[in-house]
Design goal:
Blueprint (H helix, E strand, L loop, with lengths): L2 E7 L5 E7 L3 H10 L3 E7 L22 H16 L4 H11 L4 H14 L4 H6 L7 H13 L2 H47 L4 H7 L5 H35 L2 H11 L5 H22 L4 H11 L3 H14 L6 H7 L4 H13 L2 H53 L5
Antiparallel strand pairs: 1-2, 1-3
């Protein structure tokens, strides 16, 4: 039976931690609940504690607060507040649990602001590089309505879904990226090692080589002698593209191309629709006005072209034109999402309908990832096969010509 490390808060508000055996993590959590404790962390003992990088040298410690840290802070604070601890005491408990690093420093600064009389939202607003505007806005709404723990729980759920979505996309792109890298390596080996071995054969034969063969050998000679120049040109091209994308105009054009690309466009659109719907729905359900919620939501969108379309719709929303029709005229929102938004406006349940749209498109993203993989990998493999077949065909053609053999 595996052993687990756990940390929890007792009914008296004290930290309880230890190591015990349990059939599963969920069984340990259920046992802690049965004993009246509020579990905060529970991991198998062979793993490092969550967030625990205490054994690492300073060089390997994170230099900034990461997304995982923000999720952990939100989830743990919500859990402690639900256990009945006041905000100041809850943050003190979190400081006792947090390892040294940027997240702990951030918690300490926020706690001191709260102790000095500031609201939690005001304290968080001073760290906009960590806490986005929609996060601060929801916390402010939760404090005003006396539902801070519920708001933090929703925020944690939203952050967790966003991180899961991001990880799904990253995981989906790893295999195609590996295929592309292996294709490039294979081509380099073929052009710089294999093809030069045929050159003496053609020189001894003295026959005029076909144009395709001369081209392949010329490219091979260039790569063999100046491979470093080709690599440098590729690196400079990538850096130049990244520099261009970091400009406002370049980022807008790149993102506009991304949502219209043949393979990636459908996936990029669904990711943004899911993010837009979940953020806007969560804000509306917590009492944030629709215009303020739209402003906060637009800032969370990664795709600048999609954000520009949403901002265009926001301008018409401010004139009282509703949300569904302005979004429809942007041409970037899919029909299903627009129909559901229209239904939400007609029934007065726009927040619930937006959250439903987010759930639908989270599932659609997973399907789109599978579809992309099913198309991308074979296309890359087919392209590599055609290219290698062309190179080998040109060499065989030259060999046949050298010995006057029919081809």
């Amino acid at each position: 039976m595996p052993r687990f490390l756990y940390k929890a808060v007792s009914p008296d508000g004290e930290i309880v931690e230890g190591e015990t055996q349990a059939s599963s993590r969920q069984a340990l959590i259920d046992r802690l609940h049965a004993d009246g404790h509020i579990p905060i962390r529970a991991e198998e003992s062979r793993q490092a504690p969550a967030g625990g990088k205490a054994g690492l040298p300073d060089f390997f410690r994170p230099r900034r607060v990461r997304r995982e840290d923000l999720l952990a802070i939100t989830r743990e604070l919500a859990t402690l507040l639900q256990a009945g601890l006041p905000l100041d005491r809850g943050m003190s408990v979190m400081l006792e649990l947090a390892p040294a690093g940027p997240a702990r420093d951030l918690l300490e600064e926020v706690r001191e602001k709260v102790r000095g009389g500031a609201t939690l939202a005001d304290a968080l607003a001073e760290h906009q590089n960590v806490f986005p505007n929609y996060y601060v806005g929801m916390v402010r709404a939760g404090e005003a309505g006396g539902t801070l723990e519920a708001v933090l729980t929703r925020l944690a759920d939203t952050l967790e879904r966003a991180e899961a979505l991001r990880e799904n996309v990253r995981a989906a792109l790893r295999y195609p990226a590996l295929v592309v890298i292996m294709a490039i390596v294979s081509l380099m080996v073929l052009m710089t090692v294999v093809i030069p071995e045929f050159r003496p054969l053609f020189e001894d034969a003295g026959a005029a080589m076909p144009a395709s063969t001369r081209f392949v050998i010329a490219v091979s000679d260039f790569l063999a002698a100046y491979w470093w120049l080709a690599a440098l040109a590729a690196v400079l091209a990538v850096l130049g593209l990244r520099q261009y994308i970091h400009t406002p105009e370049g980022r807008l054009r790149w993102d506009a191309w991304m949502i219209r690309a043949p393979i990636f466009g459908d996936l990029a659109t669904k990711i943004e629709v899911a993010r837009f719907s979940r953020t806007l729905g969560t804000l509306l359900s917590n009492g944030v006005s629709v215009l303020n919620a739209m402003t906060m939501t637009i800032e969370t969108l990664d795709n600048r072209a999609f954000a520009a379309a949403a901002a265009q719709a926001q301008g018409r929303l401010a004139k009282g034109e509703g949300l569904a029709e302005p979004l429809a005229e942007t041409g970037v929102f899919p029909g299903l999402a627009l129909q559901l938004i229209r239904v939400g406006e007609e029934t007065g349940r726009l927040d619930a309908m937006l959250l439903r749209i987010a759930d639908i498109y989270d599932g659609e993203v997973k399907s789109a990832i599978q579809k992309m993989l099913s198309l991308l990998v074979p296309l890359v493999t087919l392209g590599l096969g055609i290219l290698i077949a062309g190179i080998i065909g040109s060499m065989i053609s030259a060999i046949m010509s050298s010995y006057d053999l029919p081809f």
